[in-house]
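ARCHIVE CARD
Drawer: 12
Card no.: 0347
Subject: one protein chain, sequence and derived structure
Cross-reference: see card 0346
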Amino acid sequence: MLVVDDDPTVAEVVAGYLDRAGHDVARAADGPSALAHFARRRPDLVVLDLMLPGMDGFEICRRMREQGGPVPVIMLTARGDEEDRVLGLETGADDYVTKPFSPRELVLRVESVLRRARVSVPAPGASPAADVLRTATLTLDPAARRATREGAELALTLREFDLLAFFLRNPGRAFSRERLMSEVWGWDFGDLSTVTVHVRRLRAKIEHDPARPALIQTVWGVGYRLGEGAVAEGAVAEGAVAEGAAHDARAAPAVPTAPNSPAVPAVPAVPAVAAVPATPNSQGADRP
């Protein structure tokens, strides 16, 4: 993986923790060298600082996305402004971590993103076509990590793909942002505005009129659902039906309460990266 940060202390700490977690880590201190490495040896994941000399993290992320391929990007930012975090997500970042941060938490975030990025392998003897999810306009193949809309391939980020797959497997069921973050992201903590941004980006790619979404609908006071009419009868894969039944056996999702995320689960004490001034990490209070 590639760590891009012009602060040698931060870069050394991040690379060191990732290396001890078993990852092959390369480092870059600016945009041109990061893009050159990205083109030469496509990494499995990029840890990208937002504030860099000459070319900021937003522009680097855009250029990486233009080169193609859904490489996961985790942004590091010393800014606490929600606008900056949202902009990072909208330029294609899959997650962000605000400085100062626990390196152990960053490693956990990296592992979570990598788990989602791995290609699903069909069970022995299973037909790959059986796992394909469809609506009248969309086709999504989880094993190939490929999605199309009316035959045209969609350029979805890792999070957008997983979010769409989850909705297609659970048509007509409403999910809170907390539930989506847990089920799709695999997190029990985090900023709920992350979900809001990814839903907005996904709508822009799959809806005929994103301002009046017919596929991913807002359920006010709860969250989101895939419209019941979006998936034709019998169009969802058989495996999805079983998954949906398993979800039905669980307790109904609770209505979101306070916008603040729960505390990060306790981990062994590790000094925070103190090289960058702390900035309050405001929590998103967007409504779905």
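Annotation on reverse: The longest strand covers residues 73-77. The chain has nine helices and twelve strands.
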